[in-house]
Amino acid sequence: MQISELSDRSGLTVQTIKFYIREGLLPKGSVVSATRAEYDHRHLERLRLISALREVGDLPVAAIQRIVEAIEDERVSLHELFGTAQYAIGPHVAAPYDPHWRAARQDVDALVRELGWTVGDRSPARDLLAHTFVALRRLGFPITLTDLRPYVKAAAEVADHEIGRVADGAPRARTVHTLLVSTVLYEQVLTALHRLAQEDASARRFG
Amino acid sequence: MQISELSDRSGLTVQTIKFYIREGLLPKGSVVSATRAEYDHRHLERLRLISALREVGDLPVAAIQRIVEAIEDERVSLHELFGTAQYAIGPHVAAPYDPHWRAARQDVDALVRELGWTVGDRSPARDLLAHTFVALRRLGFPITLTDLRPYVKAAAEVADHEIGRVADGAPRARTVHTLLVSTVLYEQVLTALHRLAQEDASARRFG
């Protein structure tokens, strides 16, 4: 298809598509004449991924670049690729390295060990959790494994479901899409459903 | 205590505390002389709440104002108060009212009815979920109740636990703190644990 059709089908302007090509987010089309390049369904699929990451995941171009590079480098294992995507996505919270923060981060590391989870030391999710622990303590909410247990259980069940959703032997690009969609979009599904469920639980108890 | 002690114990500058008083987020202290006002533990507790909402929940002052007004108005029921807080917190996604968005929003409304959940029509979480449905479909992920079931189950279990955490007959201010903390901070706990659990599940399957 020509760039105009790619624009129609992706809902992005020709200008935006050319910008993504310049930034290396989208491969060039195959040149068929001096003024024409051909694009295929892989371009369309990539554009849909970029749009979703930009609009819903609110990812900067640099983060998308890192993800796209890992997708294209076949030597990167699926687990590494997923790590690259997850770490690029962040959120990267500031780690102030004050005593409260250090203590919280140690608690997170101890929790991960206790759960027996395999998680890289530089996972931004560790800092995110530590950040939240600091805020909870400042508000006078001590954190115990008992408080965390329902969250740990919910997170583990949802994550197992998500990784299980990846079909065996699926094409690499599709697998990456599925994993990224779980991390970025289904995380928001979980957040939205959590809010709806809270309102319902509040109605049942206090309404 | 004097404002200097309030500043020490809350970790906020005197300037910030005075700003919150001017904006109506914090009640004035009791005037004990022309140049001195006394503050008590309620001021400290309120400041901790404001800090957490600002820093971790990233809430604008206007949203905090609405929450504080509802806390102080005893005629507002706990369920309404929780709704006020949740709706102020957002996130408020733009509802473009194109056909895809309208279809997604109808699906959300149908899902909430099917689950039998009591949720206000204007809940921002409905729009948030619709927004995510649009993005999922754009990426070629059809949404079915089967896909959503693990998220619904996780959300409901966590929400029930959170509402259950509120002690019967607890002081109103404490109840509000607990509910807000569930919505803002424990939601981030869930997000962080979800990311950690995904990495672990990926390591087990693809590592």
From TrEMBL, chains A, B:
Keywords on record: DNA-binding
Protein origin, superkingdom: Bacteria
Cleavable signal peptide: none
MF terms in GO: DNA binding; DNA-binding transcription factor activity
Occurrences of domain HTH merR-type (ranges): 1-70
UniProt cross-references to PROSITE patterns, sorted A to Z: HTH_MERR_2
One Pfam family per UniProt: MerR_1
PANTHER family found in the cross-reference section: HTH-TYPE TRANSCRIPTIONAL REGULATOR ADHR, REDOX-CYCLING DRUG-SENSING TRANSCRIPTIONAL ACTIVATOR SOXR
Name of the protein in question: MerR family transcriptional regulator
